[in-house]
Amino acid sequence: MSKVEYKKEIAVPIIDLVSHYEALKDEIDAAVNDVLSSANYILGPNVTAFEQDLAKYLSCKNVIGCANGTDAIVLALKALGIGAGDEVITVSHSYFATSEAVALVGAEPVFVDIVESDFNIDVSKIEKAITKKTKCIIPVHLYGQSCEIEEVVKIANNHGLYVIEDCAQAIGAKYNGKMVGTFGNIGTTSFYPTKNLGCFGDGGALFTNDSALAEKIRLLRMHGSPKRYVHDIVGFNSRLDEIQAAILRIKLKHLDRWNQARKDTGDYFSSCLSGIEEIVIPSIKPNCTHIFHQYTIRTKSRDKLQEELKKKKIDTLIYYPIPIHKQKAFSYLKGRNYNLSVTERICNEILSLPMYPELDREKKDYICENIKSFFHNK
Ligand SMILES: Cc1ncc(COP(=O)(O)O)c(C=O)c1O
After folding, report:
1. What atom in ligand 1 is closest to the CA of residue 192?
2. Which of 50, 163, 337, 355 could form a disulfide with 245 if both were Cys (CB 3.0 to 4.6 A apart)?
3. 69-79 and 211-221 are packed helices; what angle lies between their axes, rounded to 10 degrees?
4. Structural domains of the chain, with CATH
5. Per-residue pLDDT reduced to its tens digit, 198-247
6. What is the pLDDT of the chain when averaged over all its residues?
């Protein structure tokens, strides 16, 4: 590899939400103004229309908007009747919310290791974790690529378990040509602003082909209330608001284009970085469309590389530095004898590079050249 001199200094943020907004500013501002003057702010026409648009996009019968991606998992668990005394199999390498939701309904998260090639649940380890108390599996389609979801559903069916797919990082990703979130009993997602489909605040949704379950989720998100001042069950206040739904309706039309731009960036990074022996680039499984919520490399020199890139004003992130089973909040689970060796190892090696649809060629080159330069001069 030849020595790289990259003279020009550019700042590269991990994500650029301002450019993202500015590209659609006029349309979004008009939609928000329409909601403001309608005085219809909660569960109005935009939420209904967005739920229908997203259902069509996913080829799924029902979509139910809610307040955020964490609530979406809580609502899914509640709708399936999961609570105290139950166990839910999931992964420790995810955002904390996945397991937090399990604990919030009174159930216990049981962690299974991941495979390092796609950072997702290791399906070969699931059956060993099933006990009489197990009720559900929550796989996470991490970083924008599906887990081996058909295998997960097969195992769940063999053992009479439910599957909730956490699609917060994978909306629009496909497995064998089918949208993630539509394989299990319920799919959930987050519209947190940095997600591939993000709103301008908090938001979330659930997807299901089971219409009876959808009705129950609709009740649960709205105080268990089928009509005003009538409450059939104890529920939550967890609604997607009209302003966010109006924004999401506009943004949904661009999701495939944005996901493709991320994929192109991912391919570009991979072609530039694949020659560096000290780096493992993300692998894309042949039956998956990876939507690159994150482009996450692995390297033993992670901390030094991150430090060096920071000096060059390139932001990077460690998604996630501490596995969930090691978090203080779950210290009460210590009695469990987990074998999570891959999870525990890769959190010291992973580094996510800047990734957003607006990332231009100059910035991509600047990132790649500085990474090459770091390993060349090491
Ligand atoms: C995998 C995963 N699950 C759940 C969530 C929770 O979503 P929210 O922040 O909207 O509650 C997130 C958000 O960061 C996530 O990345």
Report:
1. 10
2. 50
3. 120
4. 21-252 (3.40.640.10), 255-377 (3.90.1150.10)
5. 999 999 999 999 999 999 999 999 999 999 999 999 999 999 999 999 99
6. 96
| DSSP string computed for 43-85 | S-HHHHHHHHHHHHHHT-SEEEEES-HHHHHHHHHHHTT--TT
| Ligand 1 center to 9 CA (angstroms) | 33
* Helices first, then strands: H and E counts in the chain: 13, 12
The dihedrals phi and psi of 353, each to the nearest 5 degrees, come to -90, 165
Per residue in 322-345, pLDDT (tens digit) is 999 999 999 999 878 889 999 999
With a 6 Å cutoff on the Cβ, whether 99 touches ligand 1 is: no
Contacts of 154 (CB under 8 A, 6+ apart): none
| Dist CA 34 CA 24 (whole Å) | 16
Atom of ligand 1 nearest to the CA of 140: 1
3-state helix, strand, coil in the chain (%, to 5): 40, 15, 40
Q: Is the CB of 143 under 6 A from ligand 1?
A: no
Q: In 172-303, at which residue ranges do the beta strands (DSSP E only) sit? A: 174-175, 178-179, 186-190, 204-208, 288-289, 295-298
Identity of the residue numbered 17: L
Enter the tokens of residue 284: 């894309």
